[in-house]
């Protein structure tokens, strides 16, 4: 009895084994029963880049030499010295007037008036000269131009003896993975 069961089990295994070994009758596709099929590939017969015109702003620095005038620094020194001398002289003269708190006020007022008179007198009597020179000035400017850049690729591929066209963001190379969906006709 055990021999007949063993022979029957071996015969069933030998007869049904080839049917399951070939991928459930779907050739070289990997059907696992979860709806996943291994990808099919189609041969790419033509790839054309699709160009897009893009504005490009390139910043650059534009510089030039500009003529400028400088005032002689001796003029400023003379006006300052005249103001100091006038303040001291005005303070001494103002100190001669008044008494007590009035004397302090007269001294201060004399110093202010004397500084103003001394600076004005020095400015009027000191000729200043202007020297000229060049100073580099710069500003940021933008050079604008347009470039053609590849935005996508129009790809023509052949599958099952028919040609198909699609637009892709990259060049796929010699072949392209395709989804094949076979459905029965409606009656």
Task: Kindly summarize this structure in a few lines.
This protein has 3 helices and 4 strands; from the N terminus they run αβααβββ.
CA radius of gyration: 50 Å
Number of strands: 4
Q: Sketch the topology as an H/E string, one letter per element.
A: HEHHEEE
Share of residues in strands: 35-45%
Q: Return residue spans where pLDDT drops below 50 for at least 5 consecutive residues.
A: 5-33
Strand order of the largest sheet: 3-2-1-4
If you had to describe this structure to a student in words, what would you say it looks like?
The chain is α+β, with helices and mostly antiparallel strands and 187 residues long. The protein has a domain of 84 residues. Strands 3-2-1-4 form a 4-stranded antiparallel sheet, with no helix packed on it. It is rod-shaped, with a radius of gyration of 50 Å. The relative contact order is 0.21. About 16% of the residues have low confidence. InterPro entries: Bact_OM_lipoprot/Surf_antigen, Gly_zipper_2TM_dom. It is found in: Membrane. Keywords: Membrane, Signal. This is Glycine zipper 2TM domain-containing protein.
């Amino acid at each position: 009895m055990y021999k007949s069961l063993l022979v029957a089990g071996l015969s069933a295994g030998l007869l049904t084994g080839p049917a399951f070994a070939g991928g459930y009758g779907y050739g070289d596709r990997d059907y696992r029963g979860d709806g996943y099929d291994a990808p099919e590939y189609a041969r790419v017969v033509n790839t054309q880049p699709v160009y897009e015109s893009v504005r490009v702003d390139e910043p650059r620095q534009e510089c030039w030499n500009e003529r400028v005038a400088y005032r002689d620094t001796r003029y400023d020194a003379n006006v300052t010295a005249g103001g100091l001398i006038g303040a001291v002289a005005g303070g001494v003269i103002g100190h001669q007037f008044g008494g007590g708190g009035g004397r302090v006020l007269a001294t201060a007022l004399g110093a202010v008036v004397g500084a103003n008179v001394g600076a004005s007198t020095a400015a009027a009597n000191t000729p200043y000269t202007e020297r000229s020179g060049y100073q580099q000035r710069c500003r940021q400017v933008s050079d604008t131009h347009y470039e053609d850049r590849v935005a996508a690729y129009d790809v023509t591929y052949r599958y099952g003896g028919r040609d198909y066209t699609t637009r892709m963001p990259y060049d796929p190379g010699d072949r392209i993975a395709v989804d094949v969906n076979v459905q029965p006709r409606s009656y």
